[in-house]
Amino acid sequence: MFAINDNIALDLLETLPTLKKSIPSDIKVIGFDDSSIARHCYPKLSSVRQDTQKIADLAVASLINRIDQVHKNIEPVKLIVRASTS
User: Could you list the residue range(s) of the whole structural domain that residue 27 is in?
Assistant: First the structure.
């Protein structure tokens, strides 16, 4: 089972044995966040870790790019050549 976060996964680790389900033999449990709780529960919880700093940096860069594009919205032009330049 894949939980949306480690806290929900911890609830699964506590509840599944009451339903006579063995972890990980019967059901495998994975959390998300890799919080400290994942290392201190039993069984120790597998969890997805994400680089939140990198995600934040990418989000900020994306916003800056969108802002910059708004300010650089240049309407295309066409030169009409007439007698003053020919």
Answer: 6-71
pLDDT of 22 strictly over 90: yes
Does 86 map to a domain?
A: no
CA angle 8, 12, 15 (to 5 degrees): 130
- What does pTM read for this prediction? 0.68
Cα–Cα nearest to 12, from 39, 26, 30: 30
Query: DSSP letters of 19-37?
Result: GT--TTTT---EEES--TH
Task: Output the six-digit token pair for 27.
Answer: 């059901």
- Report yes or no on 83 lying in a domain: no
Quote the CA–CA distance of 33 and 2 in Å, as a whole number.
12
* 27-82 confidence digits (pLDDT tens): 999 999 999 999 999 999 999 999 999 999 999 998 998 887 765 656 787 777 87
